[in-house]
Amino acid sequence: MKKDLHPKYYSDAEITCACGNKMKIGTTKQKINVEICSKCHPFYTGSQQLVDTAGRAERFKTRRAKAQPKKDKKVRKSGNKIKVVTASAGMAAAKAKKIKK
């Protein structure tokens, strides 16, 4: 085996949290500073805030309905008759003609 392959292990290393909590555990670093620990983490302290997600689908549907493209109107003249056709109806008619052939 190679000598000095593994780092030095400190069995009484001190971990200090930003909230002031201090713990002693075994690690390869002698001192570690952390921002959050089990004493101040919202999940463990019970101060976790739940976000209400109700109504998200309804809000999405209303935004989607507002964003629908407006249908273009085309005026067709055939003889004495004037016919107003929306773009989507015109496309459907064109597709129907292709299918029949």
Number of helices, counting only DSSP H or I runs of 4 residues or more: 3
For the CA atoms, what is the radius of gyration? Answer: 35 Å
> CATH architecture of one domain, please?
Irregular
Number of strands: 5
Strand order of the largest sheet: 2-1-3
Low-confidence stretches: none
Specify the oligomeric state: single chain
Structural class: alpha+beta
Cα end-to-end separation? 82 Å
Query: What is the CATH fold-level name of one domain?
Result: Rhinovirus 14, subunit 4
Query: What share of the residues does DSSP label as strand, in percent?
Result: 25-35%
How much helicity do the residues have?
25-40%
- 3D shape: elongated
The biggest beta sheet reads: 3 strands, mixed
Give the averaged pLDDT, no decimals.
76
**N-to-C SSE string, H for helix and E for strand:** EEEHHEEH
Q: Any idea of the CATH class of one domain? A: Few Secondary Structures
Protein name: Large ribosomal subunit protein bL31
GO molecular function: metal ion binding; rRNA binding; structural constituent of ribosome
Cofactor: Zn(2+)
Family: Belongs to the bacterial ribosomal protein bL31 family. Type A subfamily.
